[in-house]
Amino acid sequence: MLSGLKTPEEFVAYLTDHEILRSFIRFAAQEGVREKPADIRISEKVLRVQLCAYIARNFLDNQGFYPIIREIDSTLLKAVGLNMN
User: Fold this and answer.
1) What is the DSSP string of 13-78?
2) What b-and-e string marks burial along 61-74, b requiring 16 or more CB atoms within 10 Å of the CB?
3) pTM recorded for the entire structure
């Protein structure tokens, strides 16, 4: 299914609909990583965005990664801002 997705937005929508963060948490638990709900709530956005960005990178290379990761990457946003001036 993922190979049919063509844009970063399609990856984010698909992975969000399929609860990628919850799937990742279940996987981590199976591997012996204890779930800490309070920590997950604090880091939820970063975890979700990173999962989507790295998965999209596997299919769309950097054209899939950077449009997604910029949502949380302040250094990237600063660099893009400097580059545009």
Assistant:
1) HHHHHTTHHHHHHHHHHHTTPPP-HHHHHHHHHHHHHHHHHHHHHHHHTHHHHHHHHTTT-HHHHH
2) eeebbbbbbbbebe
3) 0.84
Instruction: Give residue for tokens 């990173």.
Output: 50
- 64-81 pLDDT per residue, tens: 999 999 988 877 767 666
**Cα–Cα distance for residue pair 23/79, rounded to 1 Å:** 33
Amino acid at 61: D
Rounded-to-integer distance, Cα 73 and Cα 78, Å:
9
